[in-house]
């Protein structure tokens, strides 16, 4: 239980919201250099879900900017994989040493944490992180990568854990993230929703799927801000009254192959791609709505990102090469 003295010093909801705004990384314009927003924050009728749809931007020759998207999100590997206190220590070390050696070593360490497996989904997980931080403004509050016991293993738990404050209720919201890259939109939606369900609907108990992540948050949260960490831990403490102000939401990324991108770049037309994606979006949202009904998630806050690719396999291969796995 948090002592009354510490409790009185904890940030209130508006202060928490401002702290999360400061923690969120990345600039919207940088990410949207490679993505075109076709729909944002659109309410899915009859649910608490918000849908977002993007297409890959084209370069001057008409090539979809998939490789450039990978390169841009890989700029965030340190932020994604390394705890904040360790990053701040490296920055301080660089300032004192007069060179960037500590950050170079940290970048190598971050890249070493990614798996070499051909079917790794970690590229999608990093993209999900960037979308949550940059476009939603929800900072990651647990760097899961450094918790892996071996680089070839995937972390058992949600793909990401982010946080925000509900402006209407003042509740702390933990957002469980899941990314699925699949050959078809239907398959990606099905797998993404199935993976999110246990984190969103199971009653809290020692056996709930989210329990291990919550335990790690309680004991290992690292935001390099002791008071902010103490505030979040208070919400996670089932014996604290603040636990009643904690709620859960989901962030999903569904990436999939789509024929909207022509095979010959010189024939590519951004307006035609946007029109094709927008037309297909109706079916994707219908599929999502059915999955929400199936899993009884109508009352759960969610953000779902649709992102068609010319080839999710090409995206995955480029990511493996970029992080040094190939």
Question: Your description of this structure?
Answer:
This protein has 326 residues and is an alpha/beta fold. It has one domain. It is built from 13 helices and 6 strands. It has helices spanning 4-9, 13-23, 28-31, 66-73, 77-81, 84-97, 101-112, 122-136, 185-201, 211-220, 226-236, 270-294, 312-322; strands at 35-43, 49-56, 160-165, 172-182, 246-257, 302-309. Strands 1-2-6-5-4-3 form a 6-stranded mixed β-sheet, sandwiched between helices. Strand 1 and strand 2 form a beta hairpin. Helix 6 (84-97) runs antiparallel to helix 7 (101-112). The longest helix has 25 residues, at 270-294. The N and C termini lie far apart (48 Å). The mean pLDDT is 90.
Distance between the termini: 48 Å
Q: What's the mean pLDDT score? A: 90
Task: Estimate what percentage of residues fall within beta strands.
Answer: 15-25%
Question: How many DSSP-defined strands?
Answer: 6
What series of H and E elements makes up the topology? Answer: HHHEEHHHHHEEHHHEHEH
TL;DR?
This protein has one domain. It has a 6-stranded mixed β-sheet with strand order 1-2-6-5-4-3, with helices on both faces.
Question: How is the topology of this model organized?
Answer:
Blueprint: H1 4-9, H2 13-23, H3 28-31, E1 35-43, E2 49-56, H4 66-73, H5 77-81, H6 84-97, H7 101-112, H8 122-136, E3 160-165, E4 172-182, H9 185-201, H10 211-220, H11 226-236, E5 246-257, H12 270-294, E6 302-309, H13 312-322
Parallel strand pairs: 2-6, 4-5, 5-6
Antiparallel strand pairs: 1-2, 3-4
Helix pairs in contact: 4-13, 6-7, 9-12
């Amino acid at each position: 239980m948090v002592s009354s003295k510490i409790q009185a010093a904890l940030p209130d909801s508006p202060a928490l919201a401002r702290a999360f705004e400061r923690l969120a990384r990345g600039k919207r314009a940088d990410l949207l250099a490679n993505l075109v927003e076709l729909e944002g924050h659109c309410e899915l009728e009859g649910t608490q879900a918000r849908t977002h749809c993007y297409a890959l931007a084209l370069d001057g020759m008409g090539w979809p900017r998939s490789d450039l998207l990978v390169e841009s999100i890989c700029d965030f590997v340190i932020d994604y994989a390394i705890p904040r206190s360790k990053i701040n220590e490296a920055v301080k070390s660089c300032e004192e040493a007069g060179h960037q050696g500590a950050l170079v070593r940290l970048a190598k360490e971050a890249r070493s944490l990614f798996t070499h497996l051909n079917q790794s989904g970690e590229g999608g997980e990093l993209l999900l992180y960037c979308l949550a931080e940059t476009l939603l403004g929800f900072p990651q509050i647990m760097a899961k990568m450094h918790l892996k016991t071996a680089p070839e293993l995937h972390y058992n738990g949600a793909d990401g854990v982010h946080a925000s404050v509900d402006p209407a209720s003042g509740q702390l919201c933990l957002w469980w993230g899941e990314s699925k890259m699949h050959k078809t939109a239907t398959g990606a939606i099905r797998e993404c929703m199935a993976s999110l369900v246990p984190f969103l609907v199971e009653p809290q108990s020692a056996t709930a799927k989210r329990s291990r992540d919550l335990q790690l948050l309680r004991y290992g949260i690292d935001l390099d801000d002791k008071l902010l960490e103490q505030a979040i831990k208070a919400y996670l403490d089932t014996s604290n009254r603040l636990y009643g102000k904690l709620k859960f939401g989901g962030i999903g990324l569904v990436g999939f192959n789509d024929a909207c991108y022509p095979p010959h770049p010189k024939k590519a037309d951004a307006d035609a791609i946007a029109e094709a994606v927008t037309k297909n979006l109706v079916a994707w949202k219908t599929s999502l709505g059915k999955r929400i009904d199936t899993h009884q998630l109508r009352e759960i806050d969610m953000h779902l990102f649709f992102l068609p690719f010319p080839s999710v396999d090409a995206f995955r291969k480029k990511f493996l090469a970029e992080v040094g796995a190939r």
